[in-house]
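Here is the promised in-class demo. Please do not try to memorize the tokens; focus on the logic of going from shape to residues.
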């Protein structure tokens, strides 16, 4: 089971403002990253951007250039008097949905505390067993290297213990390979269903994660580490390929993650080092494997894309995290006030364009007007 239980441990006192009939100024915040190749472009101005909501051009009120937690530059429209003050604190969520302990996870944790972490950051780490919440206050209680050392021990312990049942099922399935007969096939089919449950993504838990993170101030980044595992499907059991491995509504999850301004980076871990691939390069692999992991790849590739995040395919968890965290450090914050805003509880699509060149642009896909 994907262990995203983050919000069961915390309670927040939240104040909500009801939309009234009078005119209310709604500022939509859009984190935007602009690349030429792999290089982030930091020279753009407010005049270079266009923002569309549901295909309609909007007026940009302000643009900030942010590096980590520092505002490097800000601009506002000439007729705009008061602009929003951005919240640049950061919440990092590291989700380890891996079946084997990987020594490079140690390097990943060291890199996070040595290079990524800034005072004021909030860290949540989720393992196959439980979640750990490290607030700024908790991080101040002991040196970072000690926290990192303890966290690495917990990760190793949880990953090994949390996958004992999964590995036992894999051994049982392999032991049935080559056996025929109705009873044998029924037993293996039951094993496959139980194996699927270990890779089950609970829609309600994912919604809860989104709702929890939505009310955390600042920028939110989820780094999902998912380890690929080929499942040995006996030739006699072609019907097993119809087992549903992603039982949640991918479109719905994409929308609520985008609405909560959660940037999701998906790191798909392989056994062999294949570098960083794009979705086109994954095509052959997708067609050649009959395993649950490929459905996971497709779903989370789309979630990462919709939330303005990146997807990496690598055998090196540490290197992939360095690339993903580096990509998250530099961004623009664009603010606009939607024309004829209505709290209709519908998803409104956002599209950002740069008018001064051909660039790769990432940003969240929209928001829910509630």
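The designed amino acids, position by position:
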């Amino acid at each position: 089971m994907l262990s995203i239980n983050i919000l069961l441990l915390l309670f927040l006192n939240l104040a909500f403002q009801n939309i009234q009939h009078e005119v209310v100024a709604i500022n939509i915040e859009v984190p935007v990253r602009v690349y030429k190749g792999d290089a982030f472009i930091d020279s753009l101005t407010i005049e270079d951007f266009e923002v569309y909501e549901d295909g309609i051009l909007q007026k940009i009120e302000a643009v900030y250039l942010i590096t980590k937690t520092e505002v490097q530059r800000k601009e506002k429209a000439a007729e705009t008097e008061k602009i929003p003050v951005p919240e640049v604190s950061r919440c990092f969520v590291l989700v380890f949905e891996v079946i084997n302990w990987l020594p490079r996870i140690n390097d990943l944790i060291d890199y996070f505390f040595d290079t990524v972490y800034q005072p004021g950051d909030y860290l949540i780490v989720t393992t196959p067993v439980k979640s750990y919440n490290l607030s700024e206050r908790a991080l101040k209680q002991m040196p970072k290297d000690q926290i990192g050392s303890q966290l690495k021990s917990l990760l190793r312990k949880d990953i090994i213990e949390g996958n004992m049942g999964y590995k036992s099922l894999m051994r049982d399935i392999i032991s049935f390979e080559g056996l025929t007969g109705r009873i044998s096939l029924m037993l293996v089919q039951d094993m496959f269903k139980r194996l699927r449950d270990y890779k089950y993504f609970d829609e309600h838990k994912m919604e809860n994660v989104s709702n929890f993170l939505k009310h955390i101030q600042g920028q939110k980044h989820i780094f999902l580490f998912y380890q690929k595992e080929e499942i040995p499907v006996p030739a006699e059991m072609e019907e097993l390929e119809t087992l549903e491995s992603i039982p949640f509504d991918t479109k719905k999850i994409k929308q609520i993650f985008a609405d909560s301004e959660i940037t999701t980076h998906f790191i798909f871990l392989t056994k062999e080092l294949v570098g960083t691939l794009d979705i086109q390069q994954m095509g052959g692999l997708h067609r050649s494997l009959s395993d649950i992991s490929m459905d996971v790849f497709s779903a989370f590739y789309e979630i990462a894309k919709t939330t303005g995040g990146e997807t990496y395919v690598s055998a090196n968890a540490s290197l992939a995290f360095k690339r993903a965290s580096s990509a998250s450090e530099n961004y623009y914050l664009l603010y606009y006030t939607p024309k004829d805003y209505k709290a209709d509880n519908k998803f409104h699509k956002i599209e950002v364009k740069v008018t001064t060149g051909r660039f790769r642009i990432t940003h969240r896909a929209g928001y829910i007007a509630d």
